[in-house]
Amino acid sequence: MSSVHAQYAWLGGESCSSNVRITFTNGLISVIEPEVEPNADDSRVAGVLIPGFVNAHSHAFHRALRGRTHSGLGDFWAWRTLMYQVANRLTPENYLALATAVFSEMALAGITHVGEFHYVHHQQNGKQYNDPNEMGKVIVEAAHRQAFG
Asked: What residue numbers bound the domain in which 113 lies?
């Protein structure tokens, strides 16, 4: 069991509560106590604690398109062509690096959960991997590296 004492925490409603202890048991919040003084075992947080954000719709590999699709006509079909070019270059190794970087950016922005819409399932030559869920496992590994898993 561990605990955090926050100067302020948003617990819902229109304003923050002050002097909030949040106790964790087995990695999960077990008790929330507003208006309590810190004790010696509490980790202290100055400022405001808020719940983490949820990204409910992500395509991690689209990160490779950032800044590359806004020139020329800029229509959906031009974007789609570039998107498939990126998808066709993905390997388990470079997808792991890409997804880990994307999930790291999310974590730094305060996102604590992600719904990843993953649809790259084949090798660059179009053939299926020996394990049909090879690329899915890469996404799961990237999420675990950022504690989303």
From this structure: 54-145
